[in-house]
Design goal:
Layout lengths: L26 E6 L3 H5 L1 H11 L5 E6 L4 H6 L6 E7 L2 E7 L2 E6 L4 H9 L5 E4 L8 E2 L4 E2 L4 H8 L7 H15 L5 E4 L6 H16 L1 H10 L5 E4 L7 H11 L7 E3 L4 E5 L15 E3 L3 H24 L5 H5 L2 H15 L10 H12 L8 H4 L3 H18 L5 H13 L17 H11 L3 H9 L2 H4 L6 H17 L1 H10 L1
Parallel strand pairs: 1-2, 1-6, 2-5, 3-11, 6-9, 12-13
Antiparallel strand pairs: 3-4, 7-8, 10-12
Helix pairs in contact: 4-6, 6-7, 7-8, 10-12, 10-13, 10-15, 10-16, 12-13, 12-21, 15-16, 16-20, 16-21, 17-18, 18-20, 20-21
C-alpha cells in the first residue's frame, strides 16, 4: 500500500498528519529546487502555517532538472514523511503543504506561466550555491555561464533559477501584475541582497527598464536556514515503511533542531510565519554569519578532513576526540569575528552544534557535505580567515580546513583510491592538481590562484604560507595525524 490521501486514516495513531483539509488549500508559493532540505525545513513550516490558516499558501515545487522527486511524490498525492531522528528515538510526521510538482526542463514555459499567476506571491529557492550561476567571490552574475547564455538567447524556455525568475517577473510586469517576493533559502552571503543583484543584473541584460522595475518593486528578504538533512537511503525508506505500515517512496530524514530567520520584507504578503516558529527580524546578517562561520565552516572542516581520514559520517567523525576538538576550535576562532545582537549566547550555540554533529541517529555523510566546495569556501571559511588576518590573529585551523578541500579535490584519497568529486569546477581543479602533483608548494599556489574561488585573498602572503604548510602536513602525516597535531599544539 502506498502513502496517499486515501490512506491517511490508516496510518498508526502516533503518526502526525496534516491538521487541515487539503482539498481547501490553494497555491501561494512556487519553490525552485525541490530537494530534501526544502521538504524537511520550509515545507514543514508552511505546513504549520496552513494549520493556523489561511489556506492560500500551498506550495508548488519545481525540480530544475531531475524528475526523480516528482515521479516519487506524484503517485502519493505529494504527501511524504519527515522522520525526525534523535538519540532517544524517531518521530514521524506526514507533510501536506506540497500540492503539486513540476520538472522545469520538461515544460519551462508552463513553469514561467505558473510563477506569473497572481495567486503566487512568493518564489522561494533551495538550488544550492551553484544554482545561482554567479561568481561566489564577487556575488555577481556569471554572464558566461552556459545556462545564462542559453536563457538570454531563449527567454521563453529558461534553464537556470535566475532565468525562470526574470522570465516570470517580466511576464507579470507586462500583464500589470505585482511582483512576487524572491525568498532565497540557500547559504549565500547576504543571500537576499546577492540574489537581488544576480536577478537584476540578468534582467538588465534583457532590458534595462526590466532591471529597474524589478529593483524598485520586487523584494528579496535575507534569510538564515538551519537544519541538518542527510541523504535518504533505501534502509531509511524501509524503516519508514515499517513504521507507517505503507510505502513512502521519498521520505526525508532530519534532526529535531530547526531554525529559520527571515527579514520581514514581502512585496505581496506572506503566511503567518511567526505562528510556525519563524523568527522575523529587521536584519538577518548577524544570524547568517553566525551560522555560516560556526555551523557550516566546522561542518566543511569535518567533511573534508573526516573523509580523508576514512570516516563515512559526521557522527563517526565526531567520535574521534581530535576531530571533535577541531570542530570546536573552528567555531571558537570564528566567534571573535562576529558581532551579535544583545542576548545572543554564542557559547550555548556552539555547544548545541557539537551535540547536533554527534547525533548517532543522523547519518550525514562526509561525502555529501563535501559537494560543491568551490561554491561554499568563500562564505564558510575565507571570510573568517580574511577577518582574522585583519585582526592579526592566526589562521592555522581554517587553513587546515582549506587544505583539506585542496587535498580532496585532487580526486585521490590517502590510499590512492578515486574520490567522486562533485563540484562545478571539478575538472578544472583536477587538471591543476595533476599539473602540480602531490607537492604542497606547487599545489597550494595553483589552487589559491583560482580567483573565482579565492579572489584577491588567494594572493595574501600570510594565507598562502598557512595553507601551504597545512597542505604539506596533510601529505606528510595524513589527515588524522594532522588534525591531532593541530588540536594538541
Amino acid at each position: 500500500m502506498r502513502l496517499g490521501h486515501a490512506h491517511l486514516d490508516l496510518l498508526p495513531a502516533a503518526i502526525r498528519r496534516p491538521a487541515y483539509d487539503r482539498s481547501l488549500i490553494t497555491p501561494g508559493i512556487v519553490h525552485l529546487g525541490l530537494g530534501a532540505f526544502h521538504r524537511a525545513h520550509q515545507a514543514v513550516a508552511i505546513d504549520d502555517c496552513l494549520a493556523a490558516g489561511p489556506t492560500s499558501w500551498g506550495i508548488v515545487g519545481a525540480s530544475l532538472r531531475s524528475p526523480d522527486t516528482r515521479d516519487a511524490l506524484a503517485p502519493q498525492d505529494h504527501l511524504y514523511t519527515v522522520a525526525v531522528r534523535a538519540a532517544e528515538g524517531t518521530e514521524h510526521r506526514v507533510i501536506g503543504a506540497l500540492l503539486d510538482s513540476v520538472v522545469a526542463r520538461e515544460k519551462p514555459a508552463a513553469l514561467v506561466e505558473r510563477m506569473a499567476d497572481p495567486a503566487i506571491r512568493i518564489v522561494s529557492l533551495t538550488v544550492t550555491e551553484k544554482g545561482y550561476c554567479h561568481t561566489p567571490q564577487s556575488g555577481d552574475l556569471d554572464e558566461r555561464h552556459p545556462d545564462v547564455v542559453h536563457d538570454l538567447n531563449d527567454i521563453d524556455a529558461p534553464r537556470s533559477a535566475p532565468g525562470f525568475i526574470v522570465a516570470a517577473l517580466a511576464r507579470r510586469r507586462a500583464l500589470g501584475i505585482a511582483p512576487f517576493t524572491v525568498l532565497c533559502c540557500d547559504n549565500l552571503a547576504a543571500n537576499g541582497h546577492t540574489v537581488q543583484r544576480i536577478v537584476t543584473q540578468f534582467a538588465a541584460l534583457r532590458s534595462e527598464e526590466l532591471g529597474k522595475w524589478i529593483a524598485a518593486n520586487a523584494t528579496f528578504p535575507c534569510t538564515m536556514v538551519d537544519r541538518i538533512v542527510p541523504e535518504t537511503t533505501r534502509a531509511d525508506r524501509d524503516g519508514v515503511a515499517a513504521v507507517l505500515g505503507m510505502r513512502d517512496a521519498w521520505p526525508v530524514m532530519t534532526e529535531p533542531f530547526t531554525q529559520w530567520v527571515v527579514e520581514d520584507r514581502f512585496a505581496s504578503g506572506r503566511p503567518d510565519l511567526a505562528a510556525a516558529g519563524v523568527e522575523l527580524v529587521s536584519d538577518v546578517k548577524p544570524f547568517e554569519l553566525m551560522k555560516l562561520r560556526l555551523l557550516n565552516a566546522s561542518h566543511s572542516a569535518l567533511a573534508y578532513l573526516g573523509y580523508l581520514a576514512g570516516y563515512e559520517t559526521i557522527a563517526d567523525t565526531m567520535q574521534d576526540p581530535h576531530f571533535a576538538r577541531l570542530a570546536a576550535r573552528v567555531m571558537e576562532e570564528a566567534a571573535v569575528t562576529l558581532t551579535m545582537p544583545e542576548g545572543t549566547d554564542l557559547a550555548a550555540y556552539r555547544a548545541s552544534l557539537l551535540q547536533r554533529f554527534a547525533n548517532p541517529a543522523l547519518h550525514h555523510r562526509t561525502w555529501q557535505i563535501a559537494m560543491d566546495g568551490s561554491q561554499k569556501l568563500p562564505q564558510r571559511l575565507l571570510g573568517t580567515m580574511q577577518d582574522r588576518l585583519a585582526m592579526n590573529l592566526p589562521i592555522a585551523t581554517h587553513a587546515l580546513a582549506v587544505a583539506g578541500w585542496m587535498r580532496y579535490v585532487t580526486a585521490s584519497d590517502e590510499q590512492g583510491r578515486a574520490i567522486d568529486v562533485r563540484d562545478p569546477f571539478a575538472a578544472e581543479l583536477a587538471a591543476l592538481a595533476r599539473e602540480a602533483g602531490p607537492v604542497a608548494e606547487r599545489l597550494a599556489p595553483a589552487l589559491l590562484g583560482v580567483t573565482k574561488v579565492f579572489g584577491p585573498l588567494g594572493a595574501e602572503p600570510r594565507l598562502r604560507e598557512a595553507v601551504t604548510v597545512a597542505l604539506g602536513r596533510l601529505y606528510s602525516e595524513g589527515a588524522r595525524r594532522a588534525v591531532e597535531m593541530l588540536v594538541s599544539a
